[in-house]
C-alpha cells in the first residue's frame, strides 16, 4: 500500500550546492502529468466517462474552468504513487493494447517528471466512443425511395 503523503518532507534528489528549500507536488499536479501522458496515446478519445464529460461540457458552457485531470485519481505517498485512470476509448482500437500503452506512458511520464516511484497504474475503459456520422454520410446510407407513377 502507498504510504500517506507527508506534505512537509522535501523530495529526494540532487540539489546544487548552496540551494535550499522544499518542493511539494500536489495530487492535482501528479494527476495532470498522468492525464497528459494518457491523452497522448492514439485511441484515447477522452478521460472519464461519457456522463461525467457531459456534465463537464455544461460546466464549460456556464464559465467553469476545464479540469485537465478529469478521469484520473492518484494516491500519493512520500516516495510512491498509485494511479487510477478511467477513459473512453475510440471505436476500433484493441482495448487491451490501448490499456497497456496508456499504462506504459503514464508509468514513464510520472516517474520521469515527478521522481516518484509508480507502483501501479490501474486502467478502466468505461466507454467506447462511436462517432456519429455527419449528415452527408447519413444521407448516403439512407434507403432511396422509389416513387411509382
UniProtKB/TrEMBL annotation:
Q: Which Pfam families match?
A: Asp23
Its recorded name reads Alkaline shock family protein YloU
Q: Which organism is it from?
A: Paeniglutamicibacter kerguelensis
**Where do the segments described as Disordered lie?**
1-20
* Biased composition range(s): Basic and acidic residues: 1-10
Q: What is the lineage of its organism?
A: Bacteria, Bacillati, Actinomycetota, Actinomycetes, Micrococcales
Which positions make up the signal peptide?
Answer: none
InterPro entries assigned: Asp23
Say which family it is in.
Belongs to the asp23 family.
State the superkingdom.
Answer: Bacteria
